[in-house]
Amino acid sequence: MAEKRNYNKRGTTPAPVQANEYGKLPPQAPELEEAVLGALMIEKDAYSLVSEILKPDCFYKVAHQKIFEAIMMLALHQEPIDMHTVTEQLRRNGTIDEVGGAYYITLLTAKVSSAAHLEYHSRIIVQKYLARELIRISTEIQNKAFDDKTDVDDLMQEAEGMLFEISQRNLKKDVTQINPVIEEARHRMLQAATRQGASGVPSGFHALDKVTSGWQKSDLIIIAARPAMGKTAFILSMAKNMAVDYNSPIGVFSLEMSNVQLVNRLIMNVCQLEGEKIKNGQLDKYEWEKFDRDINNLLDAPIYVDDTPSLSVFELRSKARRLVKEHDVQCIVIDYLQLMNASGMSFGSREQEVSIISRSLKGLAKELDIPIIALSQLNRGVEGRTGIEGKRPQLSDLRESGAIEQDADMVCFIHRPEYYKITEDAQGNSLIGLAEIIVAKHRNGATADVLLKFKGEYAKFMNKDDMTDDDTPFGDKNYQTISSKMNDVSGDSFYGNGSISQPPAPFGNGRNDETPF
User: Class assignment of domain 198-466?
Assistant: First the structure.
């Protein structure tokens, strides 16, 4: 039997047509769109079930987008939603003919009998919409990648930003009945009661931990100061306390310094060597011995540093997730917030971009259930004020965005009166060598002012009552080491691990459980 062929008017035989030869249809579910719209018009309270799930762009057909817009407007004005009110709203919008007239609205309601499975159907529509968005973005990126004039780094930033924006749209969390939340709160209280010290991640600064009970899970903490106040020195001193003294893994994202510069600052802190000597390597013999001995306290410390410049929110989110998953990181520090960007998104001003960044950091802290500490700059308002109190930072001094203050669970300021040539407080007490940590906002606790010791030559913050070996001339035979509370390791020896020898005087005073710093 001869093969049957189809001929066109000119008598030529077309080639056999394969499925999808001319392209693919975008992901869509028009039947479910009709069912959802019909259900919204026949059931009184159906819209409340999908109001947080759907938006007009989620619908594939333009007619369905306009019908849902009409339903949204009716709900906004608290008017009943049915086929008559929707038809009338479409007439007011001037789009009744574009959707197929009143007849099409009637057909939608005739296709369903109830709002059963409405939420499930709505989520399928959203999934199809997200798939279409991913196709759109990938096509756009592909076209730009073929353009030789496109800068690849800028294109990668743009792609990350667009993907981040889509993931944020789909980041939803269902409501939870209060019983399991109460049980979780009770469990944490019991854990805090049975453990000594702070309930959160301890900073190692006792007076500060007394106010905060340690940095709490899911909190966004902003630490702000004017330049040269010691923001980086503070967070590195804290990172050393967390990782070395309390063995809490910590991630440090430095947008301002390289990894080597950051580690040099840590060496200054731990070994108590001046930064200039570390840079030029001109150390005396006893300083080399001190370096070789004290650096062992940093080796194998669970501190993970990342010096990616101009880090985007999307990159931070990916890296933070990996740090928590692979290294069980308990806290993340960002130095500093204003150097971050929300690439790939368009903003009317830098203030709007900073608002998005701070809101994203708060969301990330909640998602990972760890504290996130972000450093922030202050504006010049402090410099224009006079007097002892005038130089103290205020919440209104936060730079570029009031959203930082709004989103943060805690805002702390670093204030060193000595920097402004203020050497005494109102009571005549000396302020030389002291730094004030001002807890200006504390969503879950009290505000307070905490005094710490600051040793500028070592870029180091310490508890006010701590003493280091450098407070007394090196090699003084009468010098007795006083163990710091934050470094007290009862019964354990820092020198008993076989990697280093017993230290010489003045550290060899018969006790091996004391650190020289």
Answer: alpha beta
